[in-house]
Amino acid sequence: MPTMKVLNMAGAEVGSIELSDKVFGATVNEALLHAAVRAYLMNQRQGTQSTLTRSEVSGGGKKPWKQKGTGRARQGSTRSPQWVHGGIALGPKPRTYRIEMNRKAKRAALFSAFSSKVAAGEMIVVDAITAAEYKTRAMADMLKALEAGKKTLVVLPEVDAVVVKSFANIPGVRTAVCNAICTYDILDCDTLIVAEAAVKKIEEVYA
What is the C-alpha separation between 9 and 127, in angstroms, rounded? Predict the structure, then answer.
C-alpha cells in the first residue's frame, strides 16, 4: 500500500496518507493506456468533414469536345477529378470515428494512469485547495511552492467556482472534479495535484 506525504498550499508537510493498492498501486498496463487514450482522442472527432464527388459538383453535363479527331485525350465531363473545379476522388465523407471501451477496461486504464503518476513521483496530495476570493496570484504561489510542472492537472473533490476561476488564467493548468476525470487527463500533465478529499472520494468509488 503506497504512502504519500500530504502537503498544504504553502508546500509544507502536514501529514501522510495511505493510498489504495487497487487504484494507486496497480500494475501499469501500457497497452490499455494506449487504447484508452486512442479511444478518447478518436471520440473527440466530429467526423463531419465532406468533399464533393464528380456526381455532386454542379455542371459538367456537356462533353468538352468530341471523342475522336482532336488529338487530345478523350474527356466526358469537366467535373472529372483531373479537372480544375472537378470533383474529389476518394475524398472524406461524414463518418463516425467512435471507439467503444467496456467499463472494466476503462477502470483498469484509469488505475494504471494513477499508478504511473504515483510511481513516477508526479502526484502531489494537498490537504485542501481553497480560495477565499478570486485571486490568480494565490494559486500561482501554491503551484510554485509545490514545484509543479508546466502542465498541471488539479483534481478537486467537488466544483469550487472560486478555485476554478482562480486557476483559469494560469497557462498549462487545468482543473477537474474527481468524478469526471479520465485517463487522458491524467497522462496529459507533468504534475497531478489532488486534494486529499478527492483522493478519498476516488478510493470510495473505485476501491
Answer: 8
Other CB atoms within 10 Å distance of the CB of residue 103: 7
Placement of cell 464527388 in the chain:
53
Question: Per-residue DSSP letters for 102-123?
Answer: -HHHHHHHHHHHHHHHHHTT-E
> Please, how many CA atoms are within 13 Å of residue 36, restricted to the half-sphere of its CB?
26
What is residue 177's three-state secondary structure?
A: strand
The model's pLDDT over 99-124, given as tens digits with 9 standing for 90+, comes to: 999 999 999 999 999 999 999 999 99
SS3 for 199?
A: helix
Quick one: which of 140, 134, 139, 141 has its CA closest to 162? 134
Instruction: Give the total residue count for the chain.
Output: 207
What pLDDT does 103 receive?
A: 94
Percentage of the chain surpassing pLDDT 70?
Answer: 100
Q: Helices 136-145 and 161-168, interaxial angle, to 10°?
A: 80
Q: Tell me the CA end-to-end span of the chain in Å, nearest whole number.
A: 13
**Chain centre to alpha carbon of residue 104:** 19
d(CA 9, CA 128): 7
